[in-house]
Design goal:
The protein has one domain. Helices cover 72% and strands 0% of the residues. The chain has 3 helices and no strands. The chain is flat and about 50 Å long. The two termini are 28 Å apart.
């Protein structure tokens, strides 16, 4: 995960929307991509919170047995 970029998030949203615009997309794939679209970070604060949460969970998962 890199630094926050509103431009990058808009590119991601546009790419997902292009997939969703395909009428032949099967319902399971459509549901997955709709979840991804809804889940995109809308602000730098939200993005940074997700990054912290992700790496905290990863650290805890791999270091819990060390203690």
């Amino acid at each position: 995960m890199g630094p926050w970029s509103e431009e990058r998030q808009l590119e991601r949203a546009a790419a997902i929307q292009r997939l969703l615009d395909d009428p032949t997309l099967n319902p399971e794939a459509r549901a997955m991509w709709e979840r991804h679209l809804r889940g995109l970070s809308r602000s730098e604060a939200q993005y940074n919170a997700r990054v912290v949460n992700l790496y905290t969970e990863m650290r805890n998962r791999y270091t819990e047995k060390w203690i």
